[in-house]
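G., before I forget:
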Amino acid sequence: MVYRILGRACAALLLLGMTAGLARADGILQQILSRGTLRVAVLPSLPPYSKVLPSGEPEGYDIDIAKKLADALKVKPEFVVTDIPGRITSLQTRKVDVTIADFTRTVERSTTIAFTEPYLVTTMRLLVPVDFKGKAIAELGDGAGIKIAISRGGTAEQAVPANLPKATLVRFNTQADEMSALLNGQADAMAEDDFYNSQAIKDRPGKLRQLDGLLARAEIGIGLPSGDPDFLRVLNLFVEQLNASGNNAKMFKQWFGFDQPTITVHY
Amino acid sequence: MNYTFTLRTIYPYLGELWQAAAVTLWLSSLAIVLSIALGAGIAVLRRSRLRLLRVLGAVYVEIMRNTPLLVILYVVYFAAPAIGIRLSSFVAALLGLTLNSAGYMAEILRAGLIAVAPGQFEAAQSQGMTGWQVFRHVVFPQVFRTIYAPLGNQVIAVILASSLASAVAVEDVASWMQTVGSTSFRFFETFVIAAIVYLVLCQTVNIARLLIGRWLFRQGATR
C-alpha cells in the first residue's frame, strides 16, 4: 500500500517535472504570459531615462515605456535594477525578459542580444564648461590637446576619434564620474547624448553648455534575448504603435520637457 | 541560458589587451616599490622614541587600512584639483595605490622589526659593530626572513587592487574588460579573459616568490 502511494507520488512528480520541462521549452512570450509578470532590467541613475526613488521604486521615461509594454501584454512589470554590464548579461542569462535602459543598437552588439526598432534617436554632442574656448565642434580641428570624457565601450569610442582624431579619450565607467572629471577640470569636454546634456545643463545653471555640431547619431531600442523571433515580432509591433500613436512623444515631452526629435530617417 | 560563449569574437581586441596588461604591471610594480619605501619610513616612525612620531605613524596606518582604496583614488583624482593639485590618471592611481599599500607595508615591516629581540642589538653593539653593520648582518637578514611571506601576499594584493585604477580613467586590464565588454556586449568572454590575465600575473609572482624563497632560505622553511 505504502509502496503503491509512493509509486504514484513518484509518477506524479515525474509528470510534473516533464510539464515543467515543456514549459521551459516555451518561448519567452509564453513564459511572460504564464508568469503574469514582465521582468525588465533598468539602470538606477540615468535621469530622466530612469532613476530609483528613495522608496526603491524606479521612475523615468524608460520606466514608463516598460509600464506601457506590460500593460499592452496584460501583465505586471517587475523591475530589476542593474548596472551597465548587467543590462546585457541579465538578458543573456535570461534573468530578465527585456532591457529598457538607453540601449544603443549596433550590428556587433546584436550578435549577442536582439534589439527592437528604435523608440528614440539621440545625437551625441560635446558638453563643455561655459568658459571653454570655441562654440562648435568644427572649430576644434583635429582635437589635439583636448581631453574628452567618454563612457567605456559606448558610442563615443568610435564617434569621437572619427570627428577629432587627435583628441585624448578619458574613459570612465559611469556618467557620474565623467561629470566629476568635467567639473573638476580633469577633462575639457564630455561626449554624451544631447538629452543627457540638456538635463545636465539645466541641473547646473551657468556652469555648462553644449558645442554646436553632432558627433554621431544613436538608435535606442528595447533589448531582448536573441533567438526568439516571436517575442521580437511582438515587441516590434509594440514599438511601432507606441511611436505611431503619439504616446511615445507625449511621454518624452513629459520627462524631457521638450519635443521628441523625429525617429524616422530619410536615406 | 541562451548564450554561445565565443572567444573568437574577442580576437580583434587582444592587441589592446597586451598594452593594458603592461599598464597594470607597470602601475603595480611602481606602487609596490614606492610603498615599501614609504612603509619602511612609517614602520621606523612607529618605533621612534618620540611619542608624537609614534602616534603619527599609527594614525597613518589606521587611516589607510580603514578607508577603501576607491575612496582614496577618488579623493586624489577628483577632489584634489579643487585645491590646485591636478594629477594625471596614472599618477593619481599610482599615488593612491602607494598611499594605501604603504599602510599595510608599514605593519608588515614593523612586525619584522619586532621579531628581532632587543638583546640582539645590544649584543651586536657590544661586539663593536657599527650601526650599518648591525643592520646588514643582524637586523636585515632576520627581518627579511620574517616578512618574506606576508610581503609576497601584499605584492599580489597590490596587483589585484590596481584594477580599481580604471575608475580614475587608467587604461589597465580592468578598463580593457569594461571597454570591450560594453563595445561588443560580450562581457562573459571579457570577464574570463581579464580573470585569466590577473591570475597569470599573480601566479607568476607567487611562483617566483616560492622559488626565490627556497633558494634564499635553503636551510629553513620558507612558507
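The longest strand of chain A covers residues 120-129. The two ends of chain A are 76 Å apart (CA to CA).

More on Monday.
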